[in-house]
Amino acid sequence: MKARVTVTLKTGVLDPQGKAIEGALRSLGVEGVTSVRQGKVFDIELEGTDDRAKAEALLKQAADKLLANTVVENYRVEVVG
Amino acid sequence: MKAAVLVFPGINRERDMARTLRLVSGTAPAMVWHAETELPKGTDLVVVPGGFSYGDYLRCGAIAARSPIMTAVHDFAERGGLVLGVCNGFQILCEAGLLPGVLMRNSQLKFICRDVYLRVERSDTPFTRGYNAGQVIKVPVAHGEGNYIADGETVARLEGDGRVIFRYSSPDGMIDPNWNHNGAMNAIAGILNARGNVLGMMPHPENHVEASIGSTDGRGLFAGLVDHLAKAA
Question: What's the Cα-to-Cα distance from A64 to each of A67, B23, B62, B128, B220, rounded to whole Å?
Fold first, then answer.
């Protein structure tokens, strides 16, 4: 089973890296970009379960325990097949 | 003093710390590998040193914070044992939940390696009894992620309880954005846990303890700890 966990900064948390990327896009002439927030994507392969609900519970555990720092980050879990 | 210095893969300041502890206390600390599950018997101070544990992968300190020895450090802190985290050590203590908040990327996105001035906010803690409240000390920083942030409620609690112990300041102790090198909230450079036995700080007091280096301003922290532990024993 394949899954994806996406970790993003919470709204309101200052993101200096996102700001720098936003500035770089502007200097490259990419127009119309008003804001960039950067984050992380984890592509994960699971074995031993075909149960989506179980897989999601496991991934939530992984995100809470390690992948995200929930003080400043949100995460989203998707089982992709 | 029976100090234990934790050693994680990628840490590189553990020998500076061990040397300082030996110089100031007269006793060499135990070096404790991250895979251990117990601290040496009789340990009265745990030090989490600086460096780049696990190459700063995932988030600074995130992987080290979940290593086997940290369970023992949690138990030690819960029993009231003194824990000092410096630089990556501060990041590890935050990731481990022993201290609140997070150290984010420096606001100007640069790695900062230079001497800074810190205002010591309190002298009535085991870590700062070697200083006077309001005293300014000069110690080095070397970090890319030292920008302390926490939610408003947490910062209000830290301030209300007097748990902000060190702040980045000007040489004469003024708090000013120009001297807040990494953009930390309220110029926070070091904080204490609620119980007052766990201190995390970004700067490196262990690097300023010998006159030949040009400053001994960091010595007060370690001398104070030695004094505190001698009185407690």
Answer: 7, 41, 12, 35, 39
